[in-house]
Write a structure and sequence with these properties.
alpha+beta, Beta-lactamase
């Protein structure tokens, strides 16, 4: 079996798991070293949940590079600024104050929705969507703030596809929209967190990722920095008919399966022989 056959085996395995999932799921996977790509329901449109925060973060750094905002500016969070959903800010006391950069970090690491809505206010929905379009992502759209039930009822959903999320990570990996912006975004995304990809892969390998989850929806998107076979992956699900723990277990299982194959591809030659880590005596 060649590495090409191993890729085919991985695709078949993922397709079987996705077909057996009680709901709708999709995956997109790309190796940066070989350029090989697997897409299963990769063009299906899914709710992004918190993965849209990658695009918001990129726009913030882009605006700072253009001199239009100052990420060191401080913001005081009074009770009228608090939002619902995930996060920590609305549990704090005495009107906490943070820099815009720290607010953006809370958006990414704690998936704080109060922080996210502040970042959206600073960057602007139209401006964020302009960056999304400039990155070549026609199906990706930010339509509402986090935890806006009226917008959700109207169908104003934040959406993307597994392929477009992988394309976003590929663009960042290639230094777009600018090299400085991309390096800053990936640096923040690489900070340790408890997310599906991290649980599947472990702490030995650096992962730059952003998970997301809402009712019936789960996903994670990121770059896994294997030394010789770095790759980007996006796993998304919707219409889930199983409980939240089972949804999360499904995402982790797919991520673990992908990583097991990618690690083997990294550690072997074209004939399947394990590559020596040290020269024999």
């Amino acid at each position: 079996m060649s590495k090409g056959s191993l890729w085919q085996q991985l695709e078949n395995t993922l397709k079987t798991k996705i077909d057996e999932f009680d709901g709708v799921a999709g995956v997109s996977l790309k190796s940066f070293s070989s350029g090989k790509h697997i897409s299963i329901n990769g063009d299906e449109i899914f709710p992004t949940a918190s993965t849209i925060k990658i695009h918001i973060l990129a726009k913030l750094f882009y605006l700072e590079e253009k001199g239009e905002i100052d990420l060191s500016e401080r913001i005081r969070f009074t009770q009228d600024k608090y939002g619902g959903g995930s996060g920590v800010i609305h549990f704090l006391e005495n009107d906490p104050e943070f820099t815009v950069l720290d607010v953006a970090i809370l958006m990414m690491l704690a998936s704080d929705n109060t922080a996210t809505n502040m970042c959206i206010d600073i960057a602007g929905i139209e401006s964020i969507n302009d960056l999304i379009q400039d990155m070549g992502l026609p199906e990706t759209k930010l339509r509402r703030k986090m935890m806006d039930p009226e917008a959700i009822d109207r169908g104003d959903e934040n959406v993307s596809t597994p392929n477009e999320l992988v394309m976003m990570m590929n663009q960042l990996h290639n230094g777009k929209p600018t090299s400085k912006v991309s390096s800053q975004v990936l640096r923040i995304m690489s900070k340790p967190k408890s997310a599906y990809l991290n649980k599947a892969i472990g702490s030995e390998v650096t992962v730059a990722n952003k998970p997301g989850g809402m009712d019936k929806v789960r996903g994670d998107t990121g770059i896994v920095y294997l030394p010789n076979n770095p790759y980007t992956v996006s796993i998304m699900s919707k219409f889930s008919m199983v409980d939240s723990l089972s949804q999360e277990g499904f995402i982790i299982d797919l991520a673990r399966t992908i990583h097991r194959y990618m690690a083997i591809i990294e550690d072997t030659n074209e004939y399947g022989l394990g590559l020596p880590r040290t020269l024999p005596l």
